[in-house]
UniProtKB/TrEMBL annotation:
The keyword Oxidoreductase does not apply. The lineage of its organism: Bacteria, Pseudomonadati, Pseudomonadota, Alphaproteobacteria, Sphingomonadales. It comes from the Bacteria. The keyword Lyase does not apply. Residues 1-29 form the signal peptide. It comes from Novosphingobium umbonatum. Keywords: Signal. This is Tetratricopeptide repeat protein. InterPro entries: TPR-like_helical_dom_sf (IPR011990), TPR_rpt (IPR019734). PROSITE patterns: PROKAR_LIPOPROTEIN.
């Protein structure tokens, strides 16, 4: 199925934001790592055929938009191998996010390709692979709430509600950090909606209502939050009628 409308917008928002994640976290000038580019990778392994990550990401985006997630994944998979090589060479000390002391900053295009790979797994229904890919992204971007929101969703649809709730709460906490509070509003709202959804399932209507109302502060037009708050009101009314 071709990605259109809101679904493609969701992909585009994450794709654009994944590039911002490399640049947006403040760091002290003396501790700013130098980005690891395709050229630097080539110097580490001159005999290997090096992909141009920006071209890979652009092609994968076109394929995803056309509903060809499988084809997109086929060209994105080598990126995972490339990351494994980098991680091994740097003993795991690589990151997609500035401000991570002692770690080498990866090329933004590589990080975008990794994001698209995780999205492709989700589109293909490969839940375990999607979880693994998103866990990898949260390690590479430990203060970027978007990846945590998506990982929480992957846990949720995979049936691990305990991990899902904890990860949504972690995403909300990350999104509340003052330095990036304004630009992370949509992720804060999404995380709180996820918390609300899971609290309803646990029967905690008061907690769920509080989460959904808090989400509206950042996303006042959310039809999901408004609909769920109406559902909670009906559940309460039904309970009062039965109790009476």
């Amino acid at each position: 199925m071709v990605l259109t409308g809101r679904r493609f917008w969701y992909l585009m928002a994450g794709y654009a934001a994944s590039a911002c994640a490399v640049l947006s976290v403040p760091a002290e000038a003396g501790n700013m790592p130098v980005p690891m580019t395709v050229a630097s990778v080539a110097q580490m392994n001159p005999s290997a055929s090096q992909p141009v990550f920006s071209e890979i990401s652009a092609t994968a985006m076109d394929l995803m938009r056309a509903g060809r997630a499988g084809d997109a994944l086929a060209i994105l998979e080598p990126v995972s191998g490339q990351l494994a090589m980098l991680t091994k060479a740097k003993a795991g000390r690589v990151t997609c996010q500035q401000g991570q002391r002692g770690k080498q900053l990866l090329d933004a295009d590589l990080c975008q390709a990794l994001y698209l790979r995780a999205f492709a797994f989700t589109e293909l229904g490969r839940r375990a692979d999607a979880v693994e890919a998103l866990e990898q992204l949260t390690v590479l971007s430990p203060e970027y709430p978007r990846y945590f929101v998506e990982l929480a969703y992957a846990y949720r649809v995979g049936g691990d509600k305990v991990k899902a709730l904890a990860t949504y709460q972690q995403a909300a906490s990350l999104a509340e950090k003052p330095a990036l509070r304004e630009e992370n509003k949509r992720y804060h709202a999404a995380a709180l909606r996820g918390v609300g959804y899971l609290l309803i399932e646990k029967g905690d209507l008061a907690g769920a209502e509080a989460a959904y109302r808090a989400s509206l502060a950042d996303d006042p037009g959310s039809k999901i939050a408004i609909k769920e708050l109406s559902f909670i009101a009906r559940k309460r009314a039904d309970g009062e009628q039965k109790g009476g």
